[in-house]
Specification:
Chain lengths: 112, 138
Amino acid sequence: MEIKTKKEGDIVIVSVSGRMGEISAPEFEERMKELIGGGETRFVIDLEGLEYISSAGLRALLATAQSLKEKNGQIFLSGLTGAVREVFEISQFVSIFKIFDSVETAVVESDL
Amino acid sequence: MIGRIKLPAKIEHLESITRFIGDYARDEGFCKSRILNVELAVEEALANICRYAYTGTVGDMEIKCKTDDTRRLIIDIIDAGKPFNMLTISEPDLSTEIAERKLGGLGTLLIRKMVDDIHYSRRDNKNILTLILGDRGK
């Protein structure tokens, strides 16, 4: 798994690629905790490069979203494809997260 | 060809086994998306073993795999921990919003949805979870 971050205005775009499984998911959650701890509250998580996600990855995303909610923060997802989209549909995470086709759309929506 | 791998039930060994089963499915000609399904079902089952099977003790997790005459992959996932039949676990409540969503139960849900068939048995003081996946058309 690789995590890249960049900032557009006050929105942090976190691009995650590769595989988010049992071993890598805590790394993602830790990185998000650092960003939130540093005062960031608005995120677009770009999953276009993500090939695989397990329940550990879902739990990391959910825990992040729950801690952001307590801070009135915002988390949008973008770029779900293939096996990752399948897992989001099965777990019905598609109905609890705001999901967009592209980072650009998510950023525009985030600004509204 | 019968495949087999056995390692201590520790999270750090999960990737070795998921890679092993992924390679096995690839060698059997499974398509990319179905290989990811196989890897996911196995990772989830093994994560359960690592977390819950051997509380206070150490033990192994083992995989035996083969294909049947219809080219379905038959995977036995074996541990000698306390008796646990995941088929008795009820599905998590998926209707709740972010704040109320529980973190547990998703792994067993994903396993059920990935496989074509699933069996559990307890033999010789071992849990044997059998996952059956065809290449296409779940």
